Amino acid sequence: MRVLDRLLLLLTGLLAAYQIAVGIDGLTSVPIAAYTVAFGVLLVAGLLLLILGMEVLASPAVVIVSTVIPLSLSLGLVWERLPALRVAYAAFVLLGFVAVLVTRLIPIQNKGPVIVLAVVHGIAGLTITLLPVALALTGRAPLGFALVGLGGALIGAGGLLLSFLRAGRPLLSRESILKVLPGLLLLMTAAFVGGFHFG
Amino acid sequence: MTSVVRRIRTKLSLYWPLTKSLQTGLLLSTGLAGYMSARCPVTHWYDFLGLGLSLYLSIAGSTILNMWYDRDLDAVMNRTHHRPLADGRVSPGEAVRLGAVLSALGVALSLAMDPLYGLIVAAGLVTDVVVYTIWLKRRSAWSIVWGGIAGGMPILAGRTYGLGAIDGVGALLALAVLFWIPTHILTFAMRYHEDYRAARIPTFPSTYGFPRTRLAIALSSGVAALAIGLAGILIGIEWGFVRLLAVLSGGLLLLAVASVFKPAERLNFGLFKYASLYMLSAMVLLSI
Q1: CB contact under 8 A, B240 and A20
Q2: What pTM was estimated for this model as a whole?
């Protein structure tokens, strides 16, 4: 791994650590727990990439772990900003995670696991991308909060690149994806941290 | 003059590896964190300097004495045969004198600073050199418990120096290091088990097998994480830092448990590296 990649991953980890320790103070318990899980997974994932190298992305556990980030981030956002949907969205998060877990652990030959993954990631990803932008544009949140949506778009882009790569139909070459991934992770984390700070 | 400088530089470059700088640095960081965890209302720079110096001298001194005693083992192990003592670039007499002088200076300075603090530093040194290295290391795989007790002394000493007395939190912090040590040592023992076998050192992997060793690592990691977390709460660190500590502990447990169910050398060495990073991060969080 290049020195620059190591530096970018280290910065990603530090930003995620800052967000966990300082950036979410003052929120209620459910958003704090949800954001801690989301940024915690980001932090640990960044450290593992640093320690074990990019080969760790080939692990089957990556699909399950990477589902946790959008699910918990979107849960925190919905709990904070859309109180009427709290229970329904929490149920979706729980069921969605269990569905991904089950379809990944039990060998299924049809397209079921892919559909489950696409639906769960799709809903969570759209929530993270569109909700902050909508709130910022309608004046129900400061304009800076839209950065969270940018982070959501970036995490979606990264997820798509990795998913297609794992499916054997890469949008970019493996080398290119691994080259841009550390930068993408840092930008995404910076967008989230900035968005929560200004929002 | 130039030749004298060159000679000193050569000597220092030979002595430096004898101190195992990374391990010494990590133990030193635990001692400083222990002191900072006492939250002294006034911290003098000379206290901090004295603490750092006395701990560094004692830890580095005991490490050199260990290396002096184990030079025959180092010579037959692939990983260590190039060490200055093992390959003869430093003579045993020179090394034992250096180790003894550094240890004596460290203990003397710590005793002069505070008798109780000095006593703990001295106890750590004796436990490490006499009980762990000389007495038990070549006899029993369980010697790591004593290595762990010695490893827990710097953090206990640092906190005791800050408080002026031994307290429960200090004991808890020492317990955390004691249970963290197996993660550090046993992952290493598994990676280099052929080396240890060649040197006829009884280790957990050679005595109880790899699966049980991995289980022991997972259990001790869990206890270490719990002890550090509890100590952090009792010290009164900010909740944000408790959250961060919980996340980092989660990573440690995840790797330890994963290595039980999906054993792989890469994962094992990843756990070894993560454990060091974890301890350093935990010490920073306890200090803030």
Answers
A1: yes
A2: 0.91
